[in-house]
Write a structure and sequence with these properties.
The protein has a two-stranded antiparallel ribbon with strand order 1-2. α4 packs antiparallel against α9 and α9 crosses α10. By secondary structure, it is mainly α. It has a single domain, classed as Orthogonal Bundle (Farnesyl Diphosphate Synthase). 42% of the residues are buried. The protein contains 15 helices and two strands.
Length: 296
């Protein structure tokens, strides 16, 4: 088995090729919109969510061609959320993945349409490619991503986030917000990857969901710490933005050291959730390590 870095790099390269093929080509009309879509998706980010799709797919014995489509759908939803989150009506940020945000590079109207178009394309991909031999299971996959993306998932979490500026949330309130804003799409990534393969029983799917929940929360805790302690060059986005906008975070609520301890505990719980899978879950364990052990 190749080491984790070799595995991740190989999947990232293949996935980038998939995205270049699946996104509208820049010479297709309307050219400016398609160029902005590609600008917002390609050549950036660690592709953590797609890697979770691939790792869960390997656990379930899925064909990589199928998990590649599911991974693309998840990444397109994630990219659309970043484009919209960065706009002046929300976080008003000018830097993302080390380059100007979409509305800065193009304009606000184009950025709005880029997000809309990436979201639509994600569901088009799930509908037009065979990801599971059982049509009912594939339909449930489309429903899963829709729920994770909407008002009961990512978009709802963002709404709570915007409404929480300047407020002091309790720990349960903060967790509720991030289970939706960040965690929902990470959990969906794990479950979609698994559903591209051989059927898993209810207990196994529950264990994967528990893993996704823990690693999704851990991802956000680590993000909060990095926003407080890392610099802009390291992050590829504006550092200190949460404090500047007076947003409640795990650092402001708990302090940096307690937040780091919380991330470590979530890391342990995530790995424990995979205990019944043996070596099949090795890549998921390594991804949990990667997510939580990013440099503080």
């Amino acid at each position: 088995m190749p080491d984790f870095q070799a595995w991740a790099s190989a999947h990232q390269r293949r996935f980038e090729d998939d995205l270049r093929r699946l996104l509208p080509q820049p010479d297709a009309a309307p050219q400016r919109l398609h160029a902005a879509m590609r600008y917002s998706v390609l050549d950036g980010g660690k592709r953590v969510r797609p890697l979770l799709v691939f790792a869960a797919g390997e656990l379930a014995g899925a064909d990589i061609a199928r998990t590649g489509i599911a991974a693309a759908a998840v990444e397109l939803i994630h990219a659309y959320s970043l484009v919209h989150d960065d706009m002046p009506c929300m976080d008003n940020d000018v830097l993302r993945r080390g380059k100007p945000t979409c509305h800065v590079e193009y304009d606000e109207a184009t950025a709005l349409l880029v997000g809309d178009s990436l979201q639509s394309l994600a569901f088009q991909l799930l509908a037009e490619h065979r990801l599971n031999d059982d049509a009912a299971r594939q339909l449930s996959m489309i429903k899963l991503l829709a729920a994770a993306s909407g008002s009961r998932g990512m978009a709802g979490g963002q709404a709570i986030d915007l409404d929480s500026v300047g407020k002091q949330l309790s720990l349960p309130e903060l967790e509720f917000m991030h289970i939706h804003k960040t965690g929902a799409l990470i959990r969906a990534s794990v479950l979609l990857g698994a559903q591209c393969g051989s059927p898993l029983d209810e207990k196994e799917m529950s264990s994967l969901d528990r893993f996704g929940k823990c690693v999704g929360l851990a991802f956000q805790v680590v993000d909060d710490v990095l926003d407080a302690e890392a610099d802009t060059a390291t992050l590829g986005k504006t550092a200190g933005k949460d404090a500047e906008q007076d947003k409640p975070t795990y650092v402001t609520l708990l302090g940096a050291q307690a937040a780091k301890r919380m991330a470590a505990e979530l890391h342990r719980e995530a790995r424990d959730a995979l205990g019944g899978f043996g070596e099949q879950a090795q890549r998921l364990r390594e991804l949990a390590d990667f997510i939580v052990l990013r440099k503080f």
